[in-house]
Amino acid sequence: MDMTTRNGPRLILRPWRETDPEPLFGINGDAESMRHFAAPMTRAESDAWAERMQTHIEAHGWGFWVVEERGGAPFAGVVGLMTIPWEAHFTPAVEIGWRIAPALRRRGYALEAARIALAFGFGTLRLPEIVAFTVPGNIASWRLMERLGMRREGEFDHPRLPPGHPLRRHLLHRRRAEAADASFLALPR
After folding, report:
1. What is the homologous superfamily of the domain 6-185 according to CATH?
2. Burial of 107 (0-12, 13-18, 19+ CB in 10 A)
């Protein structure tokens, strides 16, 4: 599998460029953007996260794409699929995730980009299922999961957060391949 560009009506999901870590830090270093994560990232942590995303692509041929607006922002965020590197009752698994730049939220970009990523996961990779998770307080994220046809299947304690951490509890959502009908997979490429 290769990490070629994927196209949607308003967005382009593309491979990483050398200039992408700078605008990524605009998301990862923003306290409001990261309020449902353990903490905002430092520039070094954000750069290391970008490197992990690129290393995943090198290892698997797919991962998180950079989201670009057609005729607009060259970096609107990141959306994609990733193997989960820790153990839980639902792993091994592939998760879908997204981070959209603050100025570009509430435009449906996460939904459009996530649909493209799911179509790739089910159509090209032939994954049997894709999972997503977030803290209960991240209403926008779990509502997006539901709009993507994912079903809530319980809760779990995130193993990378210590007992007692206020963000340790997560909601688990899944979408199985058989639930991804032809109309869902027939997205513009």
Report:
1. Gcn5-related N-acetyltransferase (GNAT) (3.40.630.30)
2. middle
Q: Is 170 helix (H, G, I), strand (E, B) or coil?
A: strand
Residues 152-179: b if buried by 16+ CB within 10 A, e if exposed: eeeeeebeebeeeeebbebbbbbbebee
The residue assigned the tokens 């994609």 is 80
Q: Are 21 and 14 in contact (CB under 8 A)?
A: no
Q: Is the pLDDT of residue 161 over 70?
A: yes
162: preceding bond cis by omega (within 30 degrees): no
Q: Mean pLDDT throughout 149-168?
A: 95
Instruction: Read off the pLDDT of each residue in 12-40 and give the average, rounded to a whole number.
Output: 93
Measured CA to CA, the distance from residue 30 to residue 26 in angstroms comes to 6
- CB of 115 within 8 A of CB of 6? no
At residue 38, the pLDDT reads: 82
Region for 145 from its dihedrals, namely left if φ exceeds 0, alpha if ψ lies in -120 to 50, beta otherwise: alpha
Instruction: Tell me the pTM.
Output: 0.89
> What's the mean per-residue pLDDT of the chain?
91
